[in-house]
Amino acid sequence: MTASPSRPVSLDAESRPGGSLKPLFGLDAESLAACMVEVEEPGWRGAQLAEAIYRQRVRSLDEITTLSKALRERLSGSGWEIGRPSIVSVFKSTDGTERYLIRALDDQTVEAVWMPEGDGGEAGDGSDAGQPEMHRVPSFRRFSGERVGTRESPASRSMQQPSERNPESSKSWNRATICVSSQVGCAVNCQFCLTAKLGLQRNLSAGEIAGQVVSVLDRHNVEVGRDRINLVFMGMGEPFLNYNSFMAAVRLLVREVGISPQRMTVSTSGIVPGIERFASEPDEVRPKLAISLNAPNDAIRGEVMPINRKWPIETVVDAVRAVPLRPRERITFEYVLLGGVTDRPEHAAEVARLVRRTGLPAKVNLIAWNPGPGIEYTMPTAESVEVFQSRLAEAGISVYLRRPRGRDIFAACGQLKRTVEA
Ligand code: SF4
Q1: Annotated catalytic residue: which of 41, 81, 98, 111?
Q2: Is 413 assigned a catalytic role?
Q3: 60-74: per-residue pLDDT in tens?
Q4: Atom number of ligand 1 nearest to Cα 305
Q5: Which of 6, 82, 360, 412 has the fewest CB atoms below 10 angstroms from its CB?
Q6: What is the pTM of this model?
């Protein structure tokens, strides 16, 4: 792992750049109760706040009709605001994918992605997987996404927030996946990844992570509990290098927003201390686990993912073995196919042996590498992807091909880098 070029910044209200307002969004039920006590109200009113913030998705105190005007003014007078991160730019792909720039209260932006019908690799049991589209690898087009919305000034923010909701959203989707970021940039330095070019700029708070999800749910009028929504923590950053905030966000999403942890998958590059902590999380808040493998052996993985020199494959697998799995749950091995580097038939045979050796209930998600400026790798050919997948399947490994989503708007795996700001 490379050293972080900048220190993580806490987003506590006191330390937020230029901000004395205190965001309610990101607080759990207990903290919301304490907030009510602070304004001399009974703690149980915290549940009303939680309902309004996380279920009704209000964006201003004025919208909370279950609280009196006087109480809303007292909250506001004490410096509290909703403070949910807001969508400031939307890039639409021709395939229906949307990539968002989402702005935190300190104006830092981070990216999230909406994929209607998913990308074929969401469910640990494969039940949600779409049909692999091995012959439909689209050509790469740069900056062809439609950009709607603009960066507003902080002064105009509250006026423009209502436009976050998508007036065109007619629920033409049956299910959807939201890809969520956990850090601004990333320190892990995977050689194929555009986000790595940013380095680590800062960690995201729990509210900033959960806020991406709630903003996107709001935009698409998602009815949690009725609509089929998957979350993948596979956007910018390494979740297990921001462990506390990541897990606090998961707890919010489970307990307050109402999304099952079995509808969530967290992907790690193999941060062993993080996996060890994750193994002790209770079932009720533990997402499914994906390991970003991306190479058939330590020699190649060490080149493609320098983190492997610190935690080689076997060390990672040992840590994964300690993660308790629910009935039918499987570990996912994500595997990016890099043309000529990790996509050969002999690599497939090696991956099959490796996965079998782990003894884990597992599946492999293949991802044809998504190109990005300044990265020297080449895309695998459609033929090499097909052969790789077949070899794994013939060896008895469950294997899915993730459909490339939103390549034309830099929304695909490994492409998130706030390209609009470049
Ligand atoms: S692939 Fe993930 S862990 Fe690796 S550099 Fe990119 S964002 Fe970080």
Answers
A1: 111
A2: yes
A3: 999 999 999 999 999
A4: 4
A5: 6
A6: 0.85
